[in-house]
Amino acid sequence: MTRQTLRLVRVLAWTAVVVAGAALLWATVLRPAPTDHQVAMQQLGKGDYTLVTADGQPFTQADLQGQPTAVFFGFTHCPDVCPTTLGEVTAWQDELARDGQTLRTLFITVDPERDTREVLGEYVSWVPGVTGITGERAEIDKAVAAFRAFAQRVPLEGGDYTVNHSTQVLLFDAGGDFFGLVSYQEDHDRAMGTIRRLLAS
């Protein structure tokens, strides 16, 4: 081996050492720690709630796993947000169906006192791929907290009430981890782009 070749080998070896050291330094010291917001997003959907689907099957955190899933909160007496969102979900499913795909979608009620399994099942029956989910009030409250959703009962005249609630559709990958969201009345093409990335993940 010539002196020039030996020098080149030494340079390459030291370069490899420096690169490896820099990578180790980044991984163990310099890489930014997750922010509180990032940590919170990683925990979305994770909790000890036990709910029940419209067809009587139990639903827990573990059931978020297995396939990409969309989740949104609402109630069957909702005057505008929920019917609009279900209409958007229908449009998504129709477009996905042309490619032989579907997106499992969960409609979790924030009004379990009125939204029984039977009521929910009828309410979502016209939308492909949507499962209605209800449960005891305490379990619904746990789920609302786990998904960092919002629900507030508002009294109306005559003793009736409505519920103000979150409007976003939350997306989870097949591992049950938060992937992203679709905002209320988001542009269809933009929403479909996010959903297709989810299904391809």
Would you kindly provide a brief summary of this structure?
By secondary structure, the protein is of the alpha+beta class. It has six helices and nine strands; from the N terminus they run H-H-E-E-E-H-E-H-E-H-E-E-E-E-H. The longest helix has 28 residues, at about 5-30.
Characterise this structure.
- The relative contact order is 0.17.
- The radius of gyration is 24 Å and the shape is globular.
- About 3% of the residues have low confidence.
- The chain is an alpha+beta fold and 201 residues long.
- Strand 4, helix 4 and strand 5 form a beta-alpha-beta unit.
- Helices cover 41% and strands 20% of the residues.
- The chain has 2 domains: 29 residues; 161 residues, 3-Layer(aba) Sandwich (Glutaredoxin).
- Strands 2-1-5-4-3-8-9 form a 7-stranded mixed beta sheet. A two-stranded antiparallel ribbon has the order 6-7.
By CATH, the architecture of the largest domain is named 3-Layer(aba) Sandwich
H/E topology pattern: HHEEEHEHEHEEEEH
Q: Looking at CATH, which topology of the largest domain would you report? A: Glutaredoxin
* Secondary structure category: alpha+beta
Could you list the spans in which at least 5 consecutive residues all have pLDDT below 50?
Answer: 16-22
Radius of gyration: 24 Å
CATH homologous superfamily annotation of the largest domain: Glutaredoxin
- In whole angstroms, the N-to-C terminal distance is 50 Å
Helix content: 40-55%
Strand order of the largest sheet: 2-1-5-4-3-8-9
Measured by DSSP, the beta-strand proportion falls in 15-25%
